[in-house]
């Protein structure tokens, strides 16, 4: 059976770029400028305060996990009032060792692992648009274990490190999103998959993107009338059914074009178009350039890694 969430994450190919240990003691606080890339944090022991712009401040404690899909500006600190140190992650060199804030010696009040990752696919907005600005999860042992594994692997230089980190980040993302309370999420894939009837239709679209789906067929798969299904899908997913199908087809097409493993007419067939010319017209309208040009630009010069 198709697993849409796993397919979206696998298509985006997330990989860890940087992670670090963080300790805080006494009076301390750090204000990070908006970063834009997805970031995560896990509390290993102790507690601290997190204030993300646009969100209510929260207290983080041991075992908590936070995911910021687009990482707006935020402040992380102890509980005593103080003026936070300002850091712009876009210009500040990444530390190579564990970072300590506040009192320089003695036991720390909190120990965390923080990090960020990027998507090798340029379709990062596909995932970010489906998620809340901040995901805060508590008491999920699997996430705590994964955070520790990411930290250990990131600090090691063993053979296969990058591949292991890429797989761990994929698992970490899926585990975090599965644990998210979908009812509190904005319209998007999580909300849609939380609804049994809409989820049935989404799985159909992902299992057969090449099929000439109609709203009536999807409504039948969902066990609903056409009008009721259309309204429910649009309200929960934030897109009309055919808009979602088009977006997924184009994401698949871009991935196939970047890899340059099949001819253009085969790409067209796999994403539901009867001819390369029909597909080229639809792709140009959606992406803004012809498929061939997109493939050349995405792949780089011949022989490029």
What would you say about this model in short?
The chain is an alpha+beta fold and 305 residues long.
Please, could you describe this protein's structure?
By secondary structure, the chain is α+β, with helices and mostly antiparallel strands. The chain contains twelve helices and ten strands. Strands 1, 2, 3, 4, 5, 6, 7, 8, 9 and 10 form a ten-stranded mixed beta sheet that branches. A hairpin with a 5-residue loop joins strand 3 and strand 4 (58-61).
Order of helices and strands: HEEEEEEEEEHEHHHHHHHHHH
Structural class: alpha+beta
- How far the N terminus sits from the C terminus, by CA atoms, comes to 34 Å
The CATH topology assignment of the largest domain is Jelly Rolls
Question: What are the main properties of this structure?
Answer:
single chain; 305 residues; alpha+beta; Jelly Rolls; Arc Repressor Mutant, subunit A; 3 domains; ten-stranded mixed β-sheet; 12 helices; 10 strands; disordered C terminus
SSE inventory with pairings:
Elements: H1 4-12, E1 14-25, E2 29-32, E3 39-52, E4 58-61, E5 65-68, E6 74-77, E7 85-87, E8 99-102, E9 110-119, H2 124-128, E10 135-137, H3 141-154, H4 161-179, H5 189-194, H6 196-207, H7 215-222, H8 226-237, H9 241-259, H10 264-270, H11 276-287, H12 291-299
Parallel strand pairs: 1-8, 2-7
Antiparallel strand pairs: 1-9, 2-6, 3-4, 3-5, 3-6, 3-9, 5-10
Helix pairs in contact: 3-4, 6-7, 7-8, 9-12, 10-11
